[in-house]
Amino acid sequence: MAEKKKVPIKQGLFHLPDSPGDQPYLIGSKCSHCGYVAFPKSWVCPSCMKDHTMEEISLSRRGKLDTFAVLRQAPSGFTAPYIIGYVILPEGTRIFTIITGTEIRDDALKRGQEVELVIDKLREDAQGNEIIGWKFKPV
Ligand SMILES: [Zn+2]
Question: Are residues 55 and 117 in the same domain?
Answer without folding.
Answer: no
